Amino acid sequence: MTATVRDSRAPHGADGADTGVVEAGGAGTGGAATALLPDVRWSPGPWGAASARRAARRGRRGRRPVSPPGLLGVDLACMAAAVALIGGGDTAVVAATALLAVLNGALGLYRPRLAPSVLDDLPSVAGGGTAAAVLAAALGVGVPPAGGLHGWIPLVLLYTALACGGRWAGYAAARGRRLGPGAKPTLLVGAGGHGSRLAAAMLEHPEYGLAPIGFLDDRPSVEPPPLPVLGGTARLAETLLIHRVRVVVITSVPSPGPETCSLTRVAGNLGCEVFFAPEPGDLLTDFLPLSDHIRSFPVLRMRPAPQARPTWPLKRLMDIVLALAGLVAAAPVLAVCALAVRREGGPGVLFRQHRVGLGGRWFELLKLRTLKPSDAHESATRWSIADDRRMGPAGRLLRRTSLDELPQLWNILRGEMSIVGPRPERPFFVDRFSASLPHYGSRHRVPAGLTGWAQIHGLRGDTSIEDRVRFDNHYIDTWSLLSDIKIIIRTVGSVLRPGGS
After folding, report:
1. Least confident piece of the model among 348-352, 375-379, 406-410, 414-418
2. Which of 160, 370, 389, 418 has a CA that sits 20 to 30 A from residue 103's CA?
C-alpha cells in the first residue's frame, strides 16, 4: 500500500477524501505509522509501496527508544560476577540481577542519550547497585559474608567498578560506530542562524552520531546555510522517505498550531528520533530539564509514544484479563438486561454502530439497545437520545447505570478498544469536530476506551467537546500504567454512584 491521505469517513480499506490522515504503508490495525498531517499531498514516486512499507516497519520498531548496545546486559553480567565473587549462591545472583534491572531502569540508566558519560552515570550506577545488594540481603535470598549487611559493601564497590568499566567500553564502541557508517542521516527543520550553527557543530563533531543532510524551511534564509534547503515543511514525509532520515531536529517552530505538532508526530511515526533544539538562553531552557546537548546546544528529545514504552504490553494484558473476567462475572447481568431489552423493544438486543478508533480506523462498537433509531441516518448523526420520549424504562435504567456499555468488553477482547482511553465517536461527528477543533484528531493516537480521564471528570453525554479533547490528549501525553489503574478505580466508584449518561 502506498502512502495515502485518508478521511475518517472512509472505513479501513476504502478510498476516502484527500484530507486528514497520512498513512505510510501497511500499518495494519495497530496504526503505528499513521499520523495527522493536514494539507500534505505527495506520491512516493520511484520508491513505491515497498519503501513505504519499510518505513512503516521502521516506524513500529523505531519509536521505542534504544539504549546503547548491550548496556543492560553489561550491568547484569557485572552484578552476577560480583555476587559470585563474594560467595553468593545462584539464588542471590538471580535476585540481585532482577532487582538491579528494575532499579536501574527506574533511575533512567537505559534511556537513549546523544552524549553518554560514565562520570554522569556513576552516582546512579552506584546507587542502583547499593539498593539491589541491600534489598537482596534483606530478603535473605543470598549468602552474605560474615560481616552481615556491611559485608555487601565490597560487592557494591566491585559491581560499580565492573559496571563503569563495561559502560566505558560500550560507549567507546558506540562512538566508533558513530564516526563511521553508523552515523544517522539527520534533517534539520529551520535554516536560520541557530539551525545553521547547529548543523555546523554536527558536521565538525561527528562523535554525536548525527550526519546532517539538509534543511526544511518555509521561509527564505537571510544567509546561505551550510547545507542545502530541501524544501518546505509540507514535504517532510517525502523527504524522510527519500533520504532515509533517522533523526529530525527542529531548530525553529515554523508556525504555532496543530500543523507543527503534526510534523513531529509524522516524523516519529516514520521511525525517526525527533529533537527540539531551543536557542541557548531561550525561555524553555529555564523550565525543562536539559539532559542532552550537541556541543552545548541544548536539545530536548520528543517524548516516546505510549505504545513505545516498556509498560504498554502490560496495558493490553490488563485489558484481556479484565475483559475476560468482566464478561464471565457479568454474564448473568447481561442475560437479565438482554431479556429486559427484548421484552421492551422486540428482537435485536445488541446495537451495532461504527465508531472511530486508533489511527482513525473504523470499528463496530457493541452496546445493549436502549432505543430503536428510526433509520440509519438518525443513528449516525443524532447527538444525544438521553431525553428521547421513545425510550422505555428498561432503556433509561441501562443508560443511567451504564450497563448498556457492557458488550464493549467484547470489543476490548478483540483489540478494538481498551479499558481506558478516549471514548470513541461516530465518523460523522469526528469529521465535524476535527474541522472545528485543531487537536481533535490527536485523540486517535491510542485505542478508544470504555472509560477515560475525561469521563471520570464528568465529561460524558452532552458536555463540552473542547474540554473532552483537552482531557483526552492530556491522558495520552502523560500516560502510565498507574494512571490507567487510577482511572479504573475511580470509574468503579462513579458506577456505584450512577448519574446517567
Report:
1. 375-379
2. 418
